[in-house]
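Changelog-linked ticket: 2'-monophosphoadenosine-5'-diphosphate example.
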Amino acid sequence: MKNYLVIGNPIEHSLSPKLHNYWIKQNNIHAIYEKSKIEKKDLKDLVLKIKREEINGVNVTVPFKNDVIEYLDQLSPESQSTQSVNTIFLMKDKVVGHNTDIYGFEAAIKDTKFDLTNKKVFILGAGGVVPSIIFALNKLKVTEIKLCNRTKNKAENLKKLFKNLKIIDWGEISDSDMIINATSIGLNNEDKMPFKFSDFGKNKFFYDIIYNPSETDFLKKAKNLGNRIENGKKMFIYQAAAAFKIWHKIEPEISEKITKILD
Ligand code: ATR
């Protein structure tokens, strides 16, 4: 039986096993997908296990998407550009790192039919998934990306990868068509956004990477002001589907039913 893993820390709340195991069963694949909480020191050993085919594929989540790179034999161009890996597989005896978060975000945005061409985007946060979002936004031909993060030097570091990024202070806002929450504010009820939502103006598109809860405070407040909103569930499903296709060479089902599995 083949075995697949999602690694991270924390990992308890990951819904990847639920989704992958559903698709595995649906396609009669003899495999299991599990989650594993690891420490940074475990990464080297884990990659060795992939090389020895003791593990057949790994998804990487916070905070190891960049840390794992040094142990891999090869990176896909997307992982190289973002310095971020979320999917690992063995190809011709080489352990390869790939990034399906980019596709996940891009496919999710395309589903919303919101045309990002020549639009201005504002990102809150500079965590693990942000390089993938910036890369996808550039592919979608936005004109401007402004970003702020509580810890400003983490935002400044992203400028090394993306020269077109403009960094502003945490608490300041910028005139934008789309506002993306990529912070973990919303997972914890006590955390609050550092701005007045009405300052963004009307008819904007508010997007939250968080999908559980399905409507964060960020999305609720934006919706109450008449803005368009979307959570990160589709992005999560599409990134998982792309990883599934790499490992099993099968396009898994994406439908209302699949979305419901994650509720
Ligand atoms: P990581 O930073 O380990 O990659 P993440 O969950 O991907 O983890 O990112 C968490 C993001 O939420 C970061 O941008 C973090 O800001 P810092 O870099 O300053 O830590 C942001 N964040 C979390 N809690 C926050 C809070 N209470 N106020 C503002 N930003 C917060």
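Closing comment: Example verified and attached. The chain has two domains: 2-99+236-261, 102-231. The first strand starts at residue 2 and ends at 8.
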